[in-house]
Structure formats: structure tokens, C-alpha cells
Amino acid sequence: MSNDKDMQQKKEQSLDAETLREERKQREEKEDRAADVEARKVLRTLTSEKDDEHTNVSLRTVLGGDILASGWFRRQFWFIVLIVVMCIFYISNRYACQKEMIESTKLEDTLLDRRYKALTISSQLKELTRPSVVEEHLSDTTLKVSTDPIYSLPVTGEDTAQ
To answer: Which InterPro entries match (predicted)?
Structure first.
């Protein structure tokens, strides 16, 4: 009799263990389904086309990144990228233009300096080649200014052929 009772207790314990396992399995499946439903619900809200116009934009939503998941931001993403690229091009173009303007100004100043220097040298050359200045420089030498008038030598075609 005690054998039968022991066997029966073992059967009951194994049945209880099986029912506990089944209950635990059912509970886990129910929790998994609930988590799956919750995840699908969150996914639908994030990917829905419906835009909440009255969403509060606060520092916390901006810093937390919640604003990046909003419908408005997702719809305007490529427009924002286009604006950023255009700003980068604008800034780089302005920098290149300023660089060329600085170089142009530098070259204009150099050209002006060289023109002034050429004008100065030209005026000094004209001053030194004046007949009065040349005569002053020749006064110390044996060369004198000619007092005879200029005359030209007639040249014929036969003289030039030889």
C-alpha cells in the first residue's frame, strides 16, 4: 500500500510539475505576445504618416533625439540635407572669392608700385639725356660741342652696291 501511495504521489508530483511547466510556458507566450503587440504599437506610431501638429517641442525632446523620429522631420529630411549642402557650398564659395580678392588687391598694389618705379626711372633717364646735362658732363673732357652746322653726304645707288 505504501508503494501505491508513493507511486500515486510521484504521479501527482510529475503532473503538478508538468502543469506548472505548461502554465509557465503559457505565461511566457502571453508576455511575449503582449511585448510583441507593444512593439508593433510603438513601430506604428513611429512610422505613421499622421503628424501630431500639437507635439510639444522642448529641450528634452531635442536633446533626447525624439524630434528626429517625428513625422515632420522624416518628411523634411532631404530638404534639410539640401539646405545644409547649399550652406556649405555658399561658405566655401565665399571663402574662395575672398581669397581671390585679396590676391587681386595684392597684385594691383604690386603693379602700381612697378609703374611708379618705371615712371621714376624714365624721368631720370630723360633728365640725364638732355643736351645741357650732357654738355655739363663733357666740360671736364677734351670733347666739345660742335659749332659747325650739320651737313649730309650725298649717297648714290652705285655707292651702296659696293
So the answer is: FtsL-like (IPR045755)
Alpha-carbon gap, residue 69 to 77, rounded angstroms: 11
- Are 75 and 97 spatial neighbours (Cβ–Cβ below 8 Å)? no
Q: Measured in Å, how far apart are the chain's first and last C-alpha atoms? A: 163
Query: What is the C-alpha to C-alpha distance for residues 95 and 99, in angstroms, rounded to an integer?
Result: 6
Per-residue tens of pLDDT for the chain, all 162 residues: 667 777 777 777 787 888 888 999 999 999 999 999 888 887 777 666 665 555 677 788 778 888 787 778 888 999 999 999 999 999 999 999 999 999 999 999 999 999 999 999 999 999 999 988 888 888 778 777 778 888 888 887 776 655
Q: What is the pTM of this model?
A: 0.44
Domain extent listing, the chain? 11-46
